[in-house]
Amino acid sequence: MLYWLTALSDGGDVFNLFRYITFRAGGAFFTALLFGFIFGQPLINVLRRKQGKGQPIREDGPEGHFSKAGTPTMGGLLIVGALVTSTLLWARWDNGFVWLVLFVTLAYGLIGFADDYAKVSKQNTNGVSGKVRLVLGFLIAAIASFWAVALHPEALQNQVALPVFKDALVNLGFLFIPFAMFVIVGAANAVNLTDGLDGLAIMPVMIAAGALGVIAYAVGRVDFTEYLDVHYVPGTGEILVFTSGLIGGGLGFLWYNAPPAAVFMGDTGSLAFGGGLGAIAVATKHELVLGIVGGLFVAEALSVIIQVLYFKRTGKRVFLMAPIHHHYEKKGWAEPQIVIRFWIISLILAMIGLATLKVR
After folding, report:
1. Residue 340, helix vs strand vs coil
2. C-alpha pair distances (Å), 112 with each of 56, 102, 131, 263
């Protein structure tokens, strides 16, 4: 919205700053951060009052988690509120990619909210049926995938770009839509599985958002794409404003989610931000790079898949407990130790993902 202040500019005054995506991205970051600090504690108070016993704790989970009983959930509302406010305030409203990513984030956030509400109101860990969540998730992803194809330049429609290989495109044709849907749904559920310890999911989400924001800005500038030998996707640079808002809101939330957490993000946040990251990857034609940048989420999801398949086949377990962060809890690692080490891994993977922009 503030972009329209450029209409008051004569080219050499303060209003001209609003033309620059980087300036508005900085504004979005600080707006979201301030939002988190202002509304964080009041929201926690409301959630604690409304939820009573807080998020139900799994009876078969690590023993240390029972001490967290009574902690409210749905803290993702704080980040979503900060993200939407900052994005609408600082991003260009005439950019289709911004609305695409916001749509996916909010739609998945609604699924997560319904799931969290069901868990809290019934005081069990079942929530919304997994099949219902999956069907709704694929429906949202289908809409987003068709939308992304419509926004892409004709030469890039239905194409998958291969990282590292210069100008390499694979034309999936009608299979691109299912592929893009899988990326979005997979990202949403992978982040959801990662959200199991205080602060574990939100920092890797911010790290991945930062990496994807840089990628979005780079592929949205023709001069950068010519220098880096990557595919130009006009308009994606504006996504940097969205990712900056997500990072700012995430930091504001982490203030209250740091161990011991005063509030949990819940599915409201994990599904929303996972879906948002998947949508950014599809929008920027960096679907495969998301698997590197979000490699921690991939590992968490794979640990669950491996555990289930191996147990059904042999009756035995590969991990002491899945997702894999619970495996290390069972091995005796302290929760902060797991969280910080996973943060480090996430940062390393993000740097590798960013390196694919230049390695050709």
Report:
1. helix
2. 15, 15, 14, 15
The span from the CA of 134 to the CA of 72, in Å, is 25
- Average pLDDT, stretch 69-96? 94
Of 290, 327, 276, 348, the C-alpha closest to 87 is: 276
Burial class (CB in 10 A: 0-12, 13-18, 19+), 209: buried
CB-hemisphere CA count at 13 Å for 344? 6
Q: Is 263 helix (H, G, I), strand (E, B) or coil?
A: coil
C-alpha 192 chain-centroid distance:
10
Question: Distance (Å, rounded) from C-alpha 130 to C-alpha 128?
Answer: 6
Give phi and psi for 319, each to the nearest 5: -110, 155
Whether 356 and 281 have beta carbons less than 8 Å apart is answered as: no
Dihedral angle, C-alpha 161, 167, 170, 174, nearest 10 °: 70
Backbone angles phi, psi at 165, to 5 degrees: -80, 125
**Residue among 222, 284, 272 nearest 108 (CA):** 272
Sequence length of the chain is 360
How confident is the model over 13-47, as pLDDT tens digits? 688 888 999 999 999 999 999 999 999 999 999 99
DSSP 318: S
d(CA 235, CA 345): 31
CA distance 2 to 6: 8
The radius of gyration of the chain's CA atoms, rounded to the nearest angstrom, is: 20
Q: Which of 203, 190, 188 is nearest to 254 (CA)?
A: 203
Per the listing, tokens 């910080």 go with 340
Phi then psi dihedrals of residue 170, to 5 deg: -115, 120
| pLDDT of 52 over the 80 cut | no
Give residue 220's pLDDT: 96
Pairwise CA distance, residues 357 & 103, whole Å: 27
Tokens 């203030």 map to which residue?
255
